[in-house]
Design the sequence.
């Protein structure tokens, strides 16, 4: 025992000394241009796969083949992901020059299960340059991205471009509107799919406060934080004014007898609130006003907004994950006790309204 | 010791002896019965205590040492079993016998008032002709020497309705209507409180009760029935407009202005009430402003959000306008 001890100790001290010397000398290149040694790459990749597999063991993915969901992922891919991973059929992109190489996803997506993609997108990967989703509160956004990625290998350049650009993108009047229009449409009335919130005719002050809240992370959204954080105050004001001046187009809602009934129930909630559940009357802030009283423009005008967007926002409120401007505490107190059926009813009611009502 | 005594005296004046919450200062038929019962039991307890002290003197000073068996039996069985049974039986009889009177409904045609407890305030409804009612909050007025019938309920958890100077306490239970009736016998300003722990701000759930002459009561109720007067001065119009456009009407009704709000207390005549926030702050512009700004600090976990995001001048305009809703 004692015989062993001394030489091992001396060996370790020498190794430590040499290692520190090499590190201090700065002789080792950390350049991305030279790539990893095969063994380093193998160890890193293996550890990554093991970690992702372990952390997704208990996860069940939601339904991911919904066209609206796929569309919601598309806009963020174009702005947040394409630079490094490349668009459909794109051959040259920035990530090819990084170590490890950011893969083109058309061939890589199938290597992972949906929940593993979720884990990678939400939390990012250390030592690779893959960042985490800007907001930890919005799993729904991350799932939309997963849904889009599952579709991604089937896209060609033409269908990809069609997906990420507004139908009437040729009508864009200012370059800044381009990234907005990818999801919200050129005039703020949204895209054909995606159920994006309608910005056209929205209250100007609400838009301005929301953009600021997105930019400083107080309203949680990875997608919106990415596009709003670099906007100057002046730009935020211009954008808010622009969208508030656009005309809101009436949505076509399929009116089955069940939906008609749901709308009626939703109307009751919106106009009277629910006393037993301490739910306030929606119309006191969001319109339509009872007697022509004007609603302060800090509050969003919900008339004609897609029900699925409203439902998602209400669920975020109930789980305390929505965030927002300084007025958000009002809403957090107002909807503490809604059931998911009531959320659906009241959302359908607001979708069924037009701005003339 | 001296300090302890001072504190004891202070507590006395604070909670019971002659304050607005005093059960020993009865101003109602039921409270009188309960106070009488208290004094009787108190008297009996004093007598027993004196008897006990006398017996102690007897055993220690007058006749120490063993007694004859018969004598011992008499003292142990008579004093230890028989005497308490008799005293307790009599006490139980006299304390249960007023019960039928206490729970008896008021005669047909008496004034009925519906009160429901909610975390942490009181919704009060007075009849308004047939079938109709007028909703008020956190303050009850009663005509003196007339029986009144209360119907009590709860909107969330169990509360207990207690106006110590007027009657005993009755629980307010969700899904049930409990009843209470009594006749106020002395005019005055009394206070009530929730007497069943009902959540974080249970201790901040109070009630002002005024007992007045019939004529004064009629005038008061007539005024309370009226819708609020619309704002006339530019300043009060600013307040009224801010109230409407800031979302307040989603929860609060101000009759004559908006009636969609049901969740929170009716504010039609808030300016006429003695206190705000369910009997916890003196009613004046400064308190109202503080309430709007620091709601959750004044009353922890209250359902109303603080409106501290409104411009200060708007907060002030709203409170001034509310103070004017007499």
Sequence:
């Amino acid at each position: 025992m004692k015989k062993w001890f001394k030489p091992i100790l001396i060996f370790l001290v020498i190794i430590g000394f040499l290692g520190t010397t090499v590190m201090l000398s700065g002789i080792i290149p950390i350049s991305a241009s030279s790539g990893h040694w095969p063994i380093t790459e193998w160890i890193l990749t293996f550890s990554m796969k093991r970690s992702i597999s372990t952390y997704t063991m208990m996860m069940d993915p939601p339904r991911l083949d919904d066209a609206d969901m796929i569309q919601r992922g598309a806009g963020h891919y174009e702005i947040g992901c394409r630079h490094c991973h490349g668009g459909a059929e794109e051959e040259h992109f920035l990530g090819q020059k990084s170590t490890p190489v950011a893969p083109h996803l058309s061939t890589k997506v199938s290597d992972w299960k949906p929940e593993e993609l979720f884990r990678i997108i939400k939390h990012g990967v250390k030592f690779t340059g893959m960042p985490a989703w800007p907001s930890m509160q919005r799993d729904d956004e991350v799932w939309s991205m997963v849904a889009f990625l599952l579709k991604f290998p089937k896209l060609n350049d033409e269908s990809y471009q069609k997906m990420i650009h507004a139908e009437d993108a040729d009508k864009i009047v200012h370059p800044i509107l381009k990234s907005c229009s990818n999801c919200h449409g050129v005039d703020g009335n949204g895209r054909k799919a995606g159920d994006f919130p309608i910005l056209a005719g929205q209250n100007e002050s609400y838009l301005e406060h929301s953009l600021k809240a997105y930019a400083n992370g107080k309203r949680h959204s990875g997608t919106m934080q990415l596009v709003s954080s670099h906007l100057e105050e002046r730009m935020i004001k211009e954008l808010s004014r622009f969208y508030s001046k656009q005309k809101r187009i009436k949505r076509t809602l399929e009116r089955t007898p069940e939906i008609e009934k749901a709308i009626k129930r939703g109307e009751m909630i919106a106009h009277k609130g629910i006393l037993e559940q301490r739910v306030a009357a929606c119309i006191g802030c969001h319109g339509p006003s009872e007697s022509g009283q004007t609603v302060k423009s800090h509050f969003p005008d919900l008339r004609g907004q897609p029900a699925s967007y409203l439902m998602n926002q209400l669920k975020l409120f109930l789980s305390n994950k929505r965030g927002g401007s300084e007025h958000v505490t009002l809403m957090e107190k107002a909807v503490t006790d809604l059931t998911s059926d009531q959320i659906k009813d009241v959302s359908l009611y607001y979708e069924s309204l037009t701005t003339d009502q | 010791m001296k300090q302890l005594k001072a504190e004891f005296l202070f507590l006395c004046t604070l909670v019971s002896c002659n304050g607005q919450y005093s059960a020993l200062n009865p101003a109602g038929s039921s409270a009188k019965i309960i106070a009488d019962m208290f004094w009787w039991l108190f008297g009996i307890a004093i007598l027993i205590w004196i008897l006990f002290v006398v017996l102690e003197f007897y055993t220690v000073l007058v006749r120490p040492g063993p007694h004859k068996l018969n004598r011992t039996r008499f003292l142990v069985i008579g004093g230890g079993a028989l005497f308490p049974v008799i005293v307790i039986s009599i006490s139980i009889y006299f304390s249960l016998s007023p019960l039928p009177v206490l729970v008896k409904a008021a005669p047909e045609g008496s004034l009925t008032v519906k009160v429901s407890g909610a975390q942490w305030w009181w919704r009060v409804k007075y009849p308004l002709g047939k079938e109709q009612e007028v909703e008020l909050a956190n303050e009850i007025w009663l005509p003196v020497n007339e029986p009144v019938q209360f119907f009590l309920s709860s909107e969330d958890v169990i509360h207990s309705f207690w106006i110590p100077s007027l009657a005993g306490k009755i629980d307010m239970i969700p899904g049930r209507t409990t009843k209470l009736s009594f006749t106020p016998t002395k005019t005055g300003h009394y206070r009530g409180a929730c007497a069943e722990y009902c959540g974080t701000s249970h201790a901040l759930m109070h009630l002002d009760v005024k007992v007045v002459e019939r004529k004064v009561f009629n005038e008061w109720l007539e005024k309370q029935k009226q819708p609020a007067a619309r704002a006339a001065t530019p300043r009060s119009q600013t307040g009224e407009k801010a109230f409407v456009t800031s979302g307040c009407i989603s929860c609060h009704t101000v009759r004559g202005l908006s009636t969609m709000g049901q969740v929170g207390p009716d504010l039609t005549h808030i300016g006429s009430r003695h206190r705000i926030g369910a009997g916890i702050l003196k009613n004046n512009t400064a308190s109202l402003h503080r309430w709007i700004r620091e709601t959750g600090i004044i009353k922890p976990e209250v359902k109303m959000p603080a409106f501290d995001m409104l411009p200060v001048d708007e907060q002030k305009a709203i409170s001034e306008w509310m103070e004017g809703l007499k």
Summary: Chain B has nine helices and twelve strands. The interface with chain A takes residues 155-156, 244-251, 258, 260-263, 303-307, 309 of chain B (CB under 8 Å). Residues 228 and 257 of chain B are 7 Å apart (CA to CA). The longest strand of chain B covers residues 111-118.
